[in-house]
Design brief:
six-stranded antiparallel beta barrel; 3 domains; Pdz3 Domain; eight-stranded antiparallel β-sheet; Thrombin, subunit H; 17% helix
Length: 443
């Protein structure tokens, strides 16, 4: 379980809910919490029990590094959770970081059976991977989870996380949906569900379920302030809206093909809103538009504020990047925006990425997945695309590029020109937190 930054008091929450709901049950009967009259207890088991057999433990095996006679045999080095979404085909959804680098994979079912599995495909940008259980002659008799559209979720809905945390057997925890459309935790395609259901190491790849046991997301990371990396009641899940698209692409082709629009987006905040004389702090600001790009043809300009995309409210730049990130090349997206306080609308086409590694815009430069803006003494990195050459080289947002190939660069345009003329690999001088670093960018 990646720690973006101890355990949630699920029992306390449940007791509080039950205590507060008991008088309501007495007054309104079936309108309160689910009640098992035979046992005389409140329980969500009837809705959840059917989904639990679909939750599996995933073990990833890799090359042994020890000097032994069986050094060539793959050894377990990672473990997480997963959920069966297609029983007929034996398809399991889990996290990319659970299976990354693995040579072999095994899946443990709740009935004690163990099967090998093969990797269908993985997508680092959304942290989603698909495994297929390998039949071995035994009847599979798999159970699958029902999936629901995550766009129907509301803050305050009950949520249940299921998985195999901290070496325990299958574990169920309860919380609520604490927030929607969360982003800004990294440089990936992010539009997370936030929940306070207890999620810990080992829960990665396991399902987040609603109170009827339906799949609403895949648990992927936690925010933790403790040194031990435990759960502080802030966990994030990839919503089914993104998961289903990615899983379908992986099933069909083994990879996710993403398009581009040529626009660079930043999140609207209070300071930026004041600068633009706006009375809102939710939206995505167009930071730059590449020449000849779909965004330019759509009429978008620097400082336009995107407020709705495909009819969905835009909370920040992450909302826009997530929608574009799961739009197939050739898709047309409806856009509502504000320009100097006036409403506007357009259609933005998502096109297949160009093979141009360096694109110079009016205000910034996109080079090998990094967005550069001119700053005194160099070119500042504002964003880095996950998995791009810039990300693999170790560039981070906030870095200032001061030299390319040993030659100093004074601004973003100079950096772009130097990168356009480079081949093979090039050394980049970077200033980070007051220290000078040298990184190698593979071109």
């Amino acid at each position: 379980m990646p720690i973006c930054f101890k355990a949630a008091a699920s029992v306390t929450l449940a007791l509080a809910l039950m205590t507060s709901a008991a008088p309501v049950m007495a007054q309104s009967g079936a309108t309160g919490l689910p009640y098992d009259a035979r046992r005389g207890v409140f329980s969500f088991s009837s809705g959840l029990e059917g989904s639990l057999p679909a939750v599996v433990q995933v073990t990833t095996l890799g090359q042994s590094r020890g000097p032994s006679s069986d050094a060539t045999d793959p050894k377990p080095y990672a473990s997480g959770s997963g959920v069966i979404v297609d029983a007929a085909e034996g398809l399991v959804i889990t996290n990319n970081h659970v299976v990354e680098g693995g040579r072999k994979f095994t899946v443990d079912l709740t009935d004690g059976r163990l099967f090998d599995a093969v990797l269908v495909g993985a997508d680092k940008a959304t942290d989603i991977a698909v495994l297929r259980i390998t039949p071995d002659g035994r009847p599979l008799n798999l159970k699958q989870v029902q999936t629901v559209d995550s766009d129907t979720l509301r803050t305050g809905d009950l949520a249940f996380a299921v998985g195999y945390p901290l070496g325990l057997d299958q574990t169920l925890t309860m919380g609520v949906i604490s927030g929607l459309n969360r982003s800004g935790l990294g440089d990936a395609v992010e539009d997370y569900i936030q929940t306070d259901a207890a999620v810990n190491s080992g829960n990665s790849g396991g399902p987040l379920l609603d109170s009827r046991g339906r799949l609403i997301g895949i648990n992927t990371s936690i925010l933790s302030g403790g040194l031990g990396g435990g759960n502080d009641g802030i966990a994030f899940a990839v919503p089914t809206r993104i998961m289903l698209y990615v899983a379908d692409q992986l099933k069909k082709t083994g990879e996710v093909k993403r398009g581009q629009t040529g626009a660079i987006f930043g999140s609207l905040n209070a300071e930026r809103a004041r600068d633009l004389h706006l009375g809102i702090v939710r939206g995505a600001v167009v930071a730059d538009v590449a020449p000849g790009s779909p965004a330019e043809r759509a009429g978008l300009r620097h400082n336009d504020v995107i407020t709705r995309l495909q009819g969905r409210p835009v909370a920040n730049a992450g909302s826009v990047n997530a929608t574009i990130g799961i739009a197939a090349p050739g898709s047309d997206l409806s856009v509502a925006y504000l320009r100097e306080g006036r409403d506007g609308a357009t259609t933005l086409r998502v096109e297949a990425p160009t093979d141009q590694p360096v694109v110079v815009g009016a205000q910034s430069v996109l080079a090998y997945g990094a967005t550069l803006k001119s700053q005194d003494g160099g070119a500042q990195v504002t964003t880095v695309v996950a998995g791009s050459p810039a990300a693999q080289a170790g560039l981070n947002a906030g870095d200032v590029v001061t030299a390319v190939g040993g030659a100093p660069v004074g601004d973003a345009a100079t950096a772009a020109a130097a990168l356009q003329g480079a081949t093979g690999s090039v050394e980049i001088g970077v200033m980070r937190n007051g220290e000078t670093m040298r990184l190698t960018l593979a071109l």
